[in-house]
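Input sequence (357 aa), recorded before submission:
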Amino acid sequence: MTGRTALIMAGGTGGHIFPGLAVAEELRARGWRVHWLGTPGSMEARIVPPQGFAFEAIDFSGVRGKGLATLLLLPLRLLRALAQAWGVLRRVRPDVVVGLGGYVTFPGGLVAAATGRPLVLHEQNSVPGMANRLLARVAERVFTAFPGVLAGRRTQWVGNPLRAAFLRQPAPAERFAGRSGPLRLLVVGGSLGARALNEIVPQALALVPAGQRPRVVHQSGATQIEQLRANYQAAGVEAELTPFIEDTAAACAEADLIVCRAGASTVTEIAAVGAAAVFVPFPFAVDDHQSTNARFLTDAGAGWLVPQDRLTPEWLAQLLQETPRATLLQHAQRAHAMRKTQATREVAMACEELAAP
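Predicted structure, token format:
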């Protein structure tokens, strides 16, 4: 045991939380005690404690699009969050503080810098969030998932911290060898689902002759699963429908083609596995960062980028009918060539270097 303590700060979405968990698990394996800073009633509050990490909560949330009253209250809310974060750091006494995005990172990172705690940041997106843009000026080390983000002498492009399962999958050529018959289509809507995909994909499949239709696994959030079933029934198409995929890495590896959003974790997980994908960026993402994320792969000839307002049943049906498995393998191999696999290790090593006596 090293006797060292890390405070992980990440919250709001799985795109911040799961990379944070990868780092937390790596540090724990190296003998660190790990605490997690999040917000009460949040996704991280549900996901993190069952993984065996001590959870510390402060009250803070974003202000974009929340109206004038929320903006006017921001100074008071920030002061309260800073006081709460100061209390957490005083009690936990971390050797290193690691921020992986989400609004909770901002007050926690400010307190870390003000109290002389080494601050390590990781930015998952190709367009940095506001908290990380500000905190990068005071962080000891800054890591990014995509190149050319938060450029500076302390910044290093390492990719996204990934769960080990994504790095254990066989290479695309090995997976595709011997495959025959209908294509295997995986549709990933995320924890909240993606209504546009839920509507368009069944309609597209209905346009494909029954003998040419792919075998379909369609994941949607629990809140949308019943409507998804109704959409497939109305289209007269059979599919395996699920609110949650237990082993996302294996599901991606088994698919010939994936239709999905373009969050940072999704893009880097697809590269890690090596899969062909149609990326449909969430059109209301801050600064349209999902489109920029997707271009990291599609500009390299790995997959297709289709804005939501241009995704039609006819376009997708044509792609499914006219794209042979051999072409999808080429896209998968190009995606695989873009992967970076050492991000978790690099962040953990930085923590150990900064905590060294």
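Checked by second reader. The domain at 166-338 is CATH 3.40.50.2000 (Rossmann fold).
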